[in-house]
Amino acid sequence: MDLTVPVEYSRAGNTTHSGNVHAIQDDEKFSYGTAGFRFKSEKLPFIVFRCAYVASLRARQLNSAIGVMITASHNPSCDNGVKLVDPSGDMLNEQWEIYATEVVNATDAELPAAVRALEKQISVGKTQLSRVVCGMDTRCSGPCLMNAARAGAALFNVQFDDIGVVSTPMLHYAVKAFNEPKFAEPTHDGYYSAIADSFKKLYEITEEPKDSRYQPKVIVDCANGVGAPRFRNLLERIPSSLLEVEFRNESEELNQGCGADFVKISQKLPANFSPTAAEPKCASFDGDADRLMYFRAKASENSESNDAELFDGDKIAVLIVTYIREQLKDYENSTPMERLRLGIVQTAYANGSSTRYIREKLGIEPIIVPTGVKHLHEAASEFDIGIYFEANGHGTVVFSEIFDRIIRRTPTESLPLRRLALFSRVINETVGDAFADLLAVEAVLRHYGWSMDDWAEKLYRDVPNVQIKVPVIDRSIFKTTNAEQTLVKPVGIQKMIDTDVAKYNNSRAFIRPSGTENIVRVYAEADTVENTLQLGKSLEQVVLNLCNSN
Ligand code: 16G
Ligand code: ZN
C-alpha cells in the first residue's frame, strides 16, 4: 500500500481551512476523549486525516460501514472535533480508541511504522461492504476537514460517502442503515421519513384525553447549529396541525449564549427568549443536536429575571419511562411469565429527586455509571428496554432483539402495544437525538394531555442544584471511583467534601475532573437554593486551595 500522506495533512504541513499552515510539534500529544478528539480547529486536519484512515481500516476489518463525525458539539465555533462510529451506530470500540490515539500521536516519520503495526494486528477478509461514512456540523472548518477525511480513507481506497451537514445522531443512524438495510434507508430522507412516519402513525392511534391541556407548539432554540436546517427538513414531513415549531437562534454565532449546554449550566433563558413573553413551552438543542433540554421562564416576581425552569434529561427520562411502563401493562397482564426487562441508567449528575422518584415511586433501581454516552449506552443495552439520559439532555432508549420480536414484529390488536412499537421507532436508538427525543416527548405529553405545569407537578420536583467549573492546571491529579461520586485522589479531599455535605439537609455533592476540558467540575445539591450555592462555593474553594498549595 502506498502510504504517501498529502503534505497538507501531515503534522508538519497541517493546513487550516483558511489556508494557513499550523504545524503540530512532534511532542504534542492528543487523546481520544469522551467525545473523540476535540480541539481548536487548526489542530484538526492531520487528526481527521489519520482518524479517517483508522476508520477505513476498521471498515475493512469488519467489512462494514464505519462513521466519521466532524463536530465539536456545544463547544465554541472556533473548535472542531472528530469521532468514529461503529457499524451498529454505537460509539467506537474502546480498543480502537487506543489505536486511534496511537496513530494520531505518531510523528510524521513514525506514521508508516505505526500504520503497519496496526495492520498486522487485524485480519482482513472480504472488504466489498467496507466504506467510510462522513458527516459534519455547520462549523466553517467542516468542509476542509471533510476533505481531510476523504484523503485519509483514500489511503486504502475504501469507499467514502460524504453525507454533508448532518446532526451527530443522523450520522449514527446512517451508519446503522448502511450496515442493516432493513433498519432504514441510509439517506437524509430515509432518516426523516422513518421518524416522521412513526410519529404520525403514533399520533393517529393516540386519543388525546377530553380534558387535555396539551399544547402542540414548541419554541426551539437551535443553538445556531445544525438543528436549524435539519429539523426544518424533518418537520416538512409533519403537518403543523400536529406540531407547530417556532425556530429561534438559527444563524448567528454557534452556541453563543444559547443551546442546551448553556441553558443547563446557567439555568438561564437562552438569547432571544424573553421572560415576559408568553412562551409556555421551549426547548434547546446543542450545536450538533444530540442533546435536548426543555425549559420555560421561571415564575418570578422580578420581571427582569432571566431564570429558566428546566425540564432536563432526568425529567425527560422519567416522562418516557412512565409512558413505556403504562403501555407495557397489557403485555405483562397477558403473559406474566415472560417479562421484558426495563432499566434506567443515569449518571451522578442526575437530580437526587429524579433518582429517588425512580427508586421509590416507580420501583426501579436506577443504574449509575460514569459520565459519557458510551457508558450509559452500554449499561442500557443490558435490558430489553434500556432508558438512559444524562441530566444534560443526552439520551435515548435502546431495545433488545427480544423486544423487537415480541413488540415490533408480533401483530397485535392491543393499542398500548401498537403504540409502544411505534414509539420505539420515533426514538433513534443508535444515540441520543434531540429531534427524535423532542417528538417522543411531544407524543407522550399529548397522550397524557399534559401542559408544562402538569409535567412539572405530576412527577417530581428538582432539588436545587448547581454546577461550577474550576479551571486547573492539571486535572489528571483528580481520580474518582464509585461512578465518579467519590474522589480517591488527591487523598483527603473526599473527607472535606463529606464534612461539607453533612452540614446541609437533603444534600449531595461530588467533584470530578472533566473528560473534555482542562477543568474540574463541582456538583452540589441541597434543600434550598441558598444552601446549594453555599455548598457549591465551599467545594469550589476546596479545589482552589488545593491548586494554590501545589
Ligand atoms: C461529552 C459526552 C457527554 C458528556 C460530556 C461530559 C458523548 C457523545 N458526549 O459531551 O456524554 O456528558 O462530554 O463532559 O459521549 P465533561 O467530562 O467535560 O463533564
Ligand atoms: Zn452534542
UniProtKB/TrEMBL annotation:
<feature type="active site" description="Phosphoserine intermediate">
    <location>
        <position position="73"/>
    </location>
</feature>
<dbReference type="Pfam" id="PF21405">
    <property type="entry name" value="AMG1_II"/>
</dbReference>
<comment type="similarity">
    <text>Belongs to the phosphohexose mutase family.</text>
</comment>
<keyword id="KW-0597">Phosphoprotein</keyword>
<dbReference type="Pfam" id="PF02878">
    <property type="entry name" value="PGM_PMM_I"/>
</dbReference>
<keyword id="KW-0413">Isomerase</keyword>
<dbReference type="Pfam" id="PF00408">
    <property type="entry name" value="PGM_PMM_IV"/>
</dbReference>
<feature type="binding site">
    <location>
        <position position="288"/>
    </location>
    <ligand>
        <name>Mg(2+)</name>
    </ligand>
</feature>
<dbReference type="Pfam" id="PF21404">
    <property type="entry name" value="AMG1_III"/>
</dbReference>
<feature type="domain" description="Phosphoacetylglucosamine mutase AMG1">
    <location>
        <begin position="312"/>
        <end position="450"/>
    </location>
</feature>
<dbReference type="GO" id="GO:0005975">
    <property type="term" value="P:carbohydrate metabolic process"/>
</dbReference>
<feature type="binding site">
    <location>
        <position position="290"/>
    </location>
    <ligand>
        <name>Mg(2+)</name>
    </ligand>
</feature>
<dbReference type="GO" id="GO:0000287">
    <property type="term" value="F:magnesium ion binding"/>
</dbReference>
<feature type="binding site" description="via phosphate group">
    <location>
        <position position="73"/>
    </location>
    <ligand>
        <name>Mg(2+)</name>
    </ligand>
</feature>
<feature type="binding site">
    <location>
        <position position="286"/>
    </location>
    <ligand>
        <name>Mg(2+)</name>
    </ligand>
</feature>
<dbReference type="GO" id="GO:0006048">
    <property type="term" value="P:UDP-N-acetylglucosamine biosynthetic process"/>
</dbReference>
<dbReference type="InterPro" id="IPR036900">
    <property type="entry name" value="A-D-PHexomutase_C_sf"/>
</dbReference>
<comment type="pathway">
    <text>Nucleotide-sugar biosynthesis; UDP-N-acetyl-alpha-D-glucosamine biosynthesis; N-acetyl-alpha-D-glucosamine 1-phosphate from alpha-D-glucosamine 6-phosphate (route I): step 2/2.</text>
</comment>
<dbReference type="GO" id="GO:0004610">
    <property type="term" value="F:phosphoacetylglucosamine mutase activity"/>
</dbReference>
<feature type="domain" description="Alpha-D-phosphohexomutase C-terminal">
    <location>
        <begin position="493"/>
        <end position="531"/>
    </location>
</feature>
<feature type="binding site">
    <location>
        <begin position="512"/>
        <end position="516"/>
    </location>
    <ligand>
        <name>substrate</name>
    </ligand>
</feature>
<feature type="domain" description="Alpha-D-phosphohexomutase alpha/beta/alpha">
    <location>
        <begin position="55"/>
        <end position="95"/>
    </location>
</feature>
<keyword id="KW-0479">Metal-binding</keyword>
<dbReference type="InterPro" id="IPR016657">
    <property type="entry name" value="PAGM"/>
</dbReference>
<dbReference type="InterPro" id="IPR005843">
    <property type="entry name" value="A-D-PHexomutase_C"/>
</dbReference>
<comment type="function">
    <text>Catalyzes the conversion of GlcNAc-6-P into GlcNAc-1-P during the synthesis of uridine diphosphate/UDP-GlcNAc, a sugar nucleotide critical to multiple glycosylation pathways including protein N- and O-glycosylation.</text>
</comment>
<protein>
    <recommendedName>
        <fullName>Phosphoacetylglucosamine mutase</fullName>
        <ecNumber>5.4.2.3</ecNumber>
    </recommendedName>
</protein>
<dbReference type="InterPro" id="IPR049022">
    <property type="entry name" value="AMG1_III"/>
</dbReference>
<feature type="domain" description="Phosphoacetylglucosamine mutase AMG1">
    <location>
        <begin position="187"/>
        <end position="292"/>
    </location>
</feature>
<keyword id="KW-0460">Magnesium</keyword>
<dbReference type="InterPro" id="IPR049023">
    <property type="entry name" value="AMG1_II"/>
</dbReference>
<dbReference type="InterPro" id="IPR016055">
    <property type="entry name" value="A-D-PHexomutase_a/b/a-I/II/III"/>
</dbReference>
<dbReference type="InterPro" id="IPR016066">
    <property type="entry name" value="A-D-PHexomutase_CS"/>
</dbReference>
<feature type="binding site">
    <location>
        <position position="521"/>
    </location>
    <ligand>
        <name>substrate</name>
    </ligand>
</feature>
<dbReference type="InterPro" id="IPR005844">
    <property type="entry name" value="A-D-PHexomutase_a/b/a-I"/>
</dbReference>
<feature type="binding site">
    <location>
        <begin position="390"/>
        <end position="392"/>
    </location>
    <ligand>
        <name>substrate</name>
    </ligand>
</feature>
<feature type="domain" description="Alpha-D-phosphohexomutase alpha/beta/alpha">
    <location>
        <begin position="127"/>
        <end position="179"/>
    </location>
</feature>
